[in-house]
Design a protein that fits this description.
The chain has three domains: 177 residues, MoaB/Mog-like domain (Molybdenum Cofactor Biosythetic Enzyme, Chain A), CATH 3.40.980; 78 residues, Alpha-Beta Plaits, CATH 3.30.70; 154 residues, CinA-like (Maf protein), CATH 3.90.950.20. The protein is globular, with a radius of gyration of 26 Å. The strands form four sheets. It has a six-stranded mixed sheet with strand order 2-1-3-8-7-6, with helices on both faces. A five-stranded mixed sheet has the order 14-13-15-16-17, with helices on both faces. A four-stranded antiparallel sheet has the order 10-11-9-12, with helices on both faces. Strand 6 and strand 7 form a beta hairpin. 41% of the residues lie in helices and 24% in strands. It is of the alpha/beta class and 427 residues long.
Length: 427
């Protein structure tokens, strides 16, 4: 089968997405999975629960892409209009899907032990001209529609799935991707990604300009800044996998050499995961003492599967009293130097290591805003201490954003400080 360049569009449906009440994590996850499968996502579109707007989005994306994936609007309430719209759009008639009906009855009668309403039964109704994708994680099935070919598209499909992320992911993994791979022979899409710190996006671009300009036309370099760090990603696509991998690996090694003084990790993974792997390799543990970050660093560390093997715990010590009682920070330090000071985070870290027995620790204290700043300690001032029982390092940061962004930046930089500390530590 000849390989094809296959493109996809993603349409997410729901007023809650447009007003920011719900974050659209579905399209990001789907785009990642499609990319892994060699399918290039052309566009991601969010529309409200408005029939005309959904219809128009379908019209536009079907003309542009081979595959159109929709999520949302398949629930049992009046604002869920996707299914009847698709029935009209493709000229079908509603019919009851027996397997889904039995599944819905089983969920309500045997698992939930709740009354089964008429609107719940209607979840089993589907257009008669679709292929039903069984949803074992919920009541609304997925629907696969084959669309007539055009001069620019030999075949096209539209797939509708529930907006509940857990259900959508189950359908994508179990049904949608296997069917798409069977329909198209797609090229390989390969990426190599590294993480840098200590140099801004513009500085990096200036430094590697000549190297970037010499890249072959089929290999692209992307700059991805976030939280004061910059990811560099090389991407290529083609049919001959071994040749692609060899060429990309060679250029990736060159790129690492170009930025070796600011290189953190040469893998596409979050810093908290890289820190966890480093701790596991050394057989060491970590704990966190957080004031201004309020447990956000602990959240990042524990979001990684298996973190219980190296994470001891956290002390979220916000007030003077909590710092004194939980971390043995001296009252005299707090009253003379203040909570946001080098001395305070050092004592927080010392108390944390004593209380938890962890090999390494992080301590943070700062002023996240919007109020609370002073001329000598403006909003965004953060002190971070990292270290072990033998040695500590401290750093003062001055961030300039809103409260949440300052917390995220403080957490990212604290993790980076500890990562580099553990890398250098001989123990």
């Amino acid at each position: 089968m000849k390989q094809e360049n296959v493109t996809a569009s993603i349409i997410t449906i729901g007023d809650e997405l447009l007003i920011g009440q719900t974050l659209d994590t579905n399209s990001a996850w789907m785009a990642q999975e499609l990319n892994k499968a060699g399918i290039w996502v052309r566009r991601r579109v969010a529309v409200g629960d408005v029939r005309q707007e959904i219809w128009q989005a379908l019209d536009e994306e079907i003309q542009q892409s081979d595959i159109v994936l929709l999520t949302g609007g398949l629930g049992p309430t009046a604002d869920d209009i996707t299914k009847p719209l698709l029935c009209d759009y493709f000229g079908g008639k509603m019919t009851v899907h027996a397997e889904t009906l039995a599944h819905v009855k089983d969920i309500f009668e045997n698992k939930l032990k709740r009354p089964l309403l008429e609107r719940n039964l209607r979840q089993a109704e589907v257009p008669d001209n679709c292929t039903v994708l069984f949803n074992k994680r919920g009541t609304a099935p997925g629907m696969w529609f084959d669309v007539a070919a055009t001069s620019s598209h030999s075949k096209r499909v539209v797939v509708s799935m529930p907006g509940v992320p857990h259900e959508m992911k189950g359908l994508i993994s179990a049904s949608v991707l296997p069917r798409l791979k069977a329909e198209w022979q797609v090229p390989h899409i390969l990426h190599r990604t590294l993480l840098t710190a200590g140099a801004g996006e513009s500085f990096l671009a200036e430094r590697i300009q000549q190297w970037e300009e010499a890249l072959p036309p089929h290999i692209k370099l992307a700059y991805l800044p976030n939280y004061g760090l910059v990811r560099l990603r090389l991407t290529t696509t083609g049919s001959k996998l071994p040749e692609l991998q060899h060429e990309l690996d060679y250029l990736f090694a060159e790129l690492q050499e170009q930025v070796k003084d600011v290189l953190v990790i040469n893998e596409d993974k979050p810093l908290e995961e890289a820190l966890g792997q480093l701790l596991l390799q050394k057989g060491k543990t970590v704990a966190t003492a957080e004031s201004c970050t309020g447990g956000y660093i602990a959240h990042l560390i524990t979001s990684i599967q298996g973190s219980s093997a190296y994470y001891e715990g956290s002390s979220i010590s916000y007030s003077y009293t909590a710092k004194e009682r939980m971390l043995q920070v001296h009252n005299s330090t707090l009253t003379t130097k203040g909570a946001v000071s080098q001395e305070t985070v050092q004592e927080m870290l010392g108390g944390l290591l004593k209380q938890t027995g962890a090999d390494y620790g992080i301590a943070t204290s700062g002023i996240m805003g919007p109020g609370g700043g002073t001329p000598d300690k403006p909003v965004g001032t953060v002190w971070v201490a990292v270290g072990n029982n033998e040695r500590m390092e401290t750093h003062r940061f001055l961030f300039r954003f809103d409260r949440m962004r300052n917390i995220q930046l403080a957490a990212a930089n604290a993790l980076l400080l500890l990562f580099r500390f553990v890398q250098k530590d001989a123990s």
